[in-house]
Amino acid sequence: MTSSPARPGTSSPAGQRLFVGGDWTEPDDGHYPVTDPATEETVGLAPEASRAQARAACAAAREALGPWSRTPPEERAAVLARAAAAIRSRARPYTELAVAETGATTGTARAMQVGVAAARFQRYARVESAEWAIPPQVNEAGPMGRAGVFGALAVRQPVGVVACVTSYNNPWANPAGKVAPALAMGNTVVVKPAPQDPLSVYRMAEALEAAGVPRGVVNVVSGRSPGVGEAVVESPDVDMVSFTGSTAVGQRIAEVAGRSMKRQLMELGGKGAALVLDDADLGAAVAGIGTTFSFYSGQICTAPTRVLAQRSVYGRLVEQLAAYAGRLKIGDPRAPGTVVGPVISREHRDRVESYVELGRKEGAVVVAGGERPPMERGFYVAPTLLADCTGDMRVAREEIFGPVVVVIPFDDEEEGVALADDTDYGLIDYVFTADVARAFRVARRLRAGGVGINTVGRNMEAPFGGFKRSGVGRDVGSYALHAYSEVQAIVWPG
């Protein structure tokens, strides 16, 4: 499959252009191929920005910041609403591109990538109060002056220029979740998409341009070279870095950002624990845990990849999970009925397979999967279940980011909670039990940014973020408006 130009001035037969300062610009360092994970064919040519172009994007965002931050919130919201409509109007070609770039199934790409992106722009198209009153305070006379009553107001102000460094597993919803609230709060943005699938992000920029976003307010620069992202993060024009990706990369970004006191929002790795207690509905538990095999082929930080099963249900749960994994249709993500598509690249497939082999060496029992599917082309990994694991195995401690689930038995609730928290991560955990009081009791003891009770679903207004090495800060819903703003206090005598 090869891509064709979306509209004049954005793409050319020679490849995609950068979006810098409102102009579609040829990249200084040429182009590189974007590969379809299912067919191994070239989807299109992505631009390789130079460091100078990355810095120019940041400078353009800085220049546009003043006017955009002073634009009435209602006008900013109208731009976001038009962007949502533009995305919806081209949902079919955008979905096809997302499938080609990521290997996600058509249904997932349509609903969870393009659909969620449109929903996020629409969500932040409503104006919410950016200020709130603080109760008056009576001050006694003293060194600071005479006695008096002082009023106060807290006001959310834009942070400034936000660098949005996004992940490969969802090139629509992930950047939309950063760009939309950042723009709503009056910030300008420079988006550095993942090198594996940046073309979708340029389509998002086209939608924003069509929606009337002013020049320089949104900029997109891409590249395989780490230098592009480094130049953006290091830029003195950038006030905040919002990053989604691995903990290792997040730590390096945090070191650089910390030197100039840039604000940070970090959505990092996860090794989510699913505690299956002895009174759980095993059908519901299997369906929830099984999403690790199918949803983005396990390439999602919120996946319940580490199953902790109380010993009385352990055997039945392993048997049912193995049967579930074995029923899933692996294949062309465009074909009806396909549940499990490929992982993002040959290198990542090899990495996931190496973890499965490591699990075998560590003593885990492969009860499902474990062998490469017999596909002629594509980067496929069979849904794999590793049983009889222990908490100290690397496969139980490290983020594999693929369709691999490990199962660890435990005896009582106390041991289960201890196992769940025995990890460097703390993004989202899950509790499966028929006892509601027990579920909430266990949930409150878990050191995780979120806990799902008898579900892996999410409330899209609930705060999202992690404890420990799973990240810093919270976003989603109104929490994102806080994340992309600074709070200013204004005080006056009554």
UniProtKB/TrEMBL annotation:
<keyword id="KW-0560">Oxidoreductase</keyword>
<dbReference type="GO" id="GO:0016620">
    <property type="term" value="F:oxidoreductase activity, acting on the aldehyde or oxo group of donors, NAD or NADP as acceptor"/>
</dbReference>
<feature type="domain" description="Aldehyde dehydrogenase">
    <location>
        <begin position="24"/>
        <end position="490"/>
    </location>
</feature>
<dbReference type="InterPro" id="IPR016163">
    <property type="entry name" value="Ald_DH_C"/>
</dbReference>
<dbReference type="Pfam" id="PF00171">
    <property type="entry name" value="Aldedh"/>
</dbReference>
<dbReference type="InterPro" id="IPR015590">
    <property type="entry name" value="Aldehyde_DH_dom"/>
</dbReference>
<protein>
    <submittedName>
        <fullName>Aldehyde dehydrogenase</fullName>
    </submittedName>
</protein>
<feature type="region of interest" description="Disordered">
    <location>
        <begin position="1"/>
        <end position="32"/>
    </location>
</feature>
<comment type="similarity">
    <text>Belongs to the aldehyde dehydrogenase family.</text>
</comment>
<feature type="compositionally biased region" description="Polar residues">
    <location>
        <begin position="1"/>
        <end position="14"/>
    </location>
</feature>
<dbReference type="InterPro" id="IPR016161">
    <property type="entry name" value="Ald_DH/histidinol_DH"/>
</dbReference>
<dbReference type="InterPro" id="IPR016162">
    <property type="entry name" value="Ald_DH_N"/>
</dbReference>
